[in-house]
Amino acid sequence: MGCAAVATGLLSGTGVLPAYAQGQPSAAELDWRPRSELPQDVQDTLPVFCEGGYLPSRGDASADPGDGLAGVGPDSEQPLEASGLNARYEIDRELFLQGDVKLRQGEFSATGSEARYNQISGNFNLSGPIVSRGQGVLLTGEQAQYDVNSGSLDINSATFLLHASEMRGTASRLSRPRPDLVEISGGRLTTCAPSQNDWAVVASEIELDQAEGVGTARHVRLEVKDVPVFYWPYASFPIDDRRKSGFLYPAFGTSNTGSGGFLAVPYYLNLAPDYDATLTPQYIHGRGLLTEAEGRHLSVLGPSVLQVGYIAEDQEFESQSPGNDPERWALDFSTRAGLGGGWTGYGDYSVVSDNDYLSDLNRTLDINQQTHLLRQGGVRYMGTASYFDAYLSGYQTITDRIAARNRPYDQLPELLYGAQYDLGMVETGLESQYTYFHRDNNELSGLDRANGQRLRLLPEVALGMRTIWGYSRPSVTLDYTRYELEDYELGDAGFDRTVPVFEWDNGLYFDRRTSLFDVPFNQTLEPRLYYAWADADEQNDIPDFDSAVEAFSFDELFDRNRFTGGDRVGDTNQLTVAVSTRFNDLNTGAERALFSIGQVYYYDDRDVTLAGQGAADRSDSALAGEAVLKPLDTLDIRTSGLWDPRDHKTQEGRSQLVFHSRDYRYLATVGHTYRRDEFEQTDIGAVFPVTDRVSLIGRWVYDARTDRTAGSLAGIEYNNCCWSVQLVSQNYLTDDETLENRILFQIQLKGLGGSGGSSSRVSDAIYGFEERERRRFEPRTY
User: Fold this and answer.
1) What is the pTM of this model?
2) What is the CATH class of 5-244?
3) I need a surface site. Which of 205, 233, 369, 388 has the fewest CB within 10 A?
């Protein structure tokens, strides 16, 4: 039989049964603790809408803090230990125990009032009230049979608790034929607290396979407050965080046509450990049946994701755009591969059937709309002193508002190489770029018609002088560019450009100890001088493949070229004067404040232009400044801007306040963006709890220039410890500058997933909401 029995009898009396035998609490009630009885560190992590959590009893003799989390079961190589207050033993036949009976074999343990052990069959008949613990499972019942040879256990009138998933339930009969499998007849299960029966899954048969992390059930009905609301003849569901094929919760709401709603029923396919898929057919009233599919693959090299969408006949699109093909589709593919030795491969490809697909059929809360879809693939090397990148890149422009001359060029290919070498105090470096630019320019003329090759080399020599109190770095760079063009109408299609550049960057570092509100701080003072000189002539005969005038900001104070890309090198003779100060909390090490301000002084006019922009004759720039305040770990205030000292007016500014409480119940963001005579928007977002369980969600983007709403969302959320519901209404600005409206709804049952309709979309709009969602439904077993 492979086991031995040890019986211990206390003949002084029948003893007193454990307290839980009186009234027979359920398995969940045994380990449930009100919030006030949980350790303080556990209370601090418990959401406010949860009244308690599960904590295995340390006073229960059957509780074993060393138990695992996979399943209950014996170890056949371990002896059987049995004890009771009274014992009667018939040699080689039967052992009878009475009063405070305790059984243990390997990781299996149980307690009861009476037990009979048949040594011939190896069966234990245990009378209740019974409490049995194993690896992450707690069972109770009235009568039980346990086979010491196979480890099978059968309990009548049982209750159970799975600690890992916080799933509890009842059963008319519970059987455990093997350590990691539980079979339930007449079962009812939920993840709600013992005193909270908001929802439950009721089934004639339930099987919980802890080895696979899957539960299955037959003749299933979902009950809400004991009222049946849904029926399935068969259902499967996860009982831990492992993936399982099956239907996900449906998503539904209003469609953006304004004529009705949509219903999506996603089905998840767990095809293999390294790849899976989600198929989502959805009916959109006024449009028809849209089918979306997502496939994911994780190879030894890296992840790949393929997403497609297809609608055979979009009725709304056909009525609004007569003559256009009502068959619409979209595809997005991305892949990443670690090739070893510092090499990686990557690819991104997106395409849609028409310019309106994303605004019509892609449900999103993002305010901004994409105008170009990227197609790019290549390989990259990153070493300690060098890098290399080679790729092909192209775009699909999905708006009619961008003229053909302003559409981006494809890079077919682009090659980048850079290296940096330190020779003591002397530093040498090289940045290089080769690109073949191509665009369909048949209908364009002049420089806009040109395609061709560009080679750019930037060798640099510098002196790196650094100490703990400052640094000085003079450098010389030769900015060389060679062009070989096609369809060039201004002369020789092959020419080059050489611009010598001198830079000298200097900085000092001072610090001191100070205090504010009895908090010790280390304050720094960091003045910086940066000089740049570049001798460049006018370059109006060079096409604009990838260049633009760079927006001026504090970071651009230390950039010698006012143009991005490689087609313009700005002429300059400038000196930047700037200073920063930081306040670092000596108790925590956190940087609580940063203030920076600077200005550029020009000694020559700037003549090089791009499309008529970039030239100037002012001898100084606007004052550029930025400030970052973090007075609390939960509060972040940032502001930056440009102020013109000549006319005493702000040229542009951006301010943002982000706040979240430690438990992320409260979220607030306030932002303001301003560009003089061009643009001004205010952005406000918040999640505000009205009660412990009800929260309001909102975001509003207001455009002051047009005196209109540029986007908004408003919703309400209800939470308790085992389910939540969200209802969100969104207005968003489409590509044709009109506001559309849609409504998204989500309900989530803890342990059974959610509809996926709104929560992920709100996370894109409000900072901190994703972290808030994670905290709401993470397991809380301690």
Assistant:
1) 0.76
2) mainly beta
3) 233
